[in-house]
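FORM 12-B: Structure-to-Sequence Request
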């Protein structure tokens, strides 16, 4: 690899766009592609080359980074990219894809001579834009020197979980972490909804728990988005949160664990999306407590 290897970013939504910008700032030669080209085009101002197809984006690339909606989308896009993939290239698979497709992703990589790293990231819009994500990574020790600079450009730290990307150890940890994040998000919405229904000023509740073991910055941050009506632009969208919640439920079911809270959380996100909040911040799950969006 050269001093400034070429990195192809497939998927330029909330997270992918921020990661691409940070890669440009770090001096990488960056190519980007998105199914909706308009979402990728602003990255040209940051120095990225906007490609028209996945195959064009990955042509000769040293590192391919995927940040797409789900695992099936990743496989579809990588199949489209196949004509341009270079054997020996590193594939940093950063999409939250769950664990059921881990073997399929590894098989695709092996079939095309790619060095796969299972590398989901922990964080939302703000840490992504600041290059402060946490990268959860699994992949062969030999060759990590090629992908580590990429992880360093998009994240504040990298937590290695194993050397076999097909085992999905990084993705497993991501699901565990997200189960807590999504449960806390749903609980935040419900406490605000109950306070509204009972005529309780939510700030009285915040004063009640202030400084104690039940207080948490995440609760206050997500509650503020609802109370201040600042649900757009999303840090993490309702539709994506629903997808992740269902991955968590499926992972539990596949391993003999019933996850009632995760299942209920997935349904709350689905109701909020059906009410028109799919692209808003996942804190908008608050509205799932009401038949219609409340006023005031």
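FORM 12-B RESPONSE
SEQUENCE OUT:
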């Amino acid at each position: 690899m050269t001093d400034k290897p070429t990195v192809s970013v497939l998927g330029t939504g909330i997270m992918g766009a921020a990661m691409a910008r940070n890669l440009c700032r770090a001096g990488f030669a960056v190519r980007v592609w998105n199914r909706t080209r308009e979402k990728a085009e602003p990255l040209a101002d940051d120095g990225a080359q906007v490609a028209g197809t996945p195959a064009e984006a990955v042509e000769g690339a040293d590192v391919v980074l995927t940040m797409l909606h789900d695992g099936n989308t990743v496989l579809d896009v990588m199949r489209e990219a196949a004509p341009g993939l270079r054997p020996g290239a590193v594939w940093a698979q950063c999409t939250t894809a769950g664990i059921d497709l881990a073997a399929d992703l590894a098989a695709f990589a092996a079939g095309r001579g790619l060095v796969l790293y299972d590398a989901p990231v922990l964080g939302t819009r703000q840490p992504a834009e600041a290059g402060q994500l946490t990268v959860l990574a699994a992949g062969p020790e030999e060759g990590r020197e090629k992908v580590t600079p990429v992880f360093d450009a998009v994240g504040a730290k990298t937590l290695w979980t194993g050397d076999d990307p097909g085992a999905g150890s990084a993705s497993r940890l991501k699901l565990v972490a997200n189960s807590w994040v999504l449960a806390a998000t749903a609980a935040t919405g419900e406490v605000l909804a109950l306070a509204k229904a009972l005529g309780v000023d939510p700030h009285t509740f915040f004063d009640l728990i202030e400084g104690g073991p039940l207080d948490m910055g995440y609760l206050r941050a997500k509650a503020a988005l609802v109370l201040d009506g600042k649900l757009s632009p999303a840090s993490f969208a309702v539709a994506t949160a629903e997808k992740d919640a269902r991955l968590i439920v499926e992972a539990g079911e596949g391993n003999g664990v019933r996850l009632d809270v995760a299942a209920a959380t997935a349904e709350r996100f689905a109701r909020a999306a059906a009410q028109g909040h799919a692209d808003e911040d996942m804190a908008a799950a608050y509205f799932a407590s009401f038949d219609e969006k409340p006023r005031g």
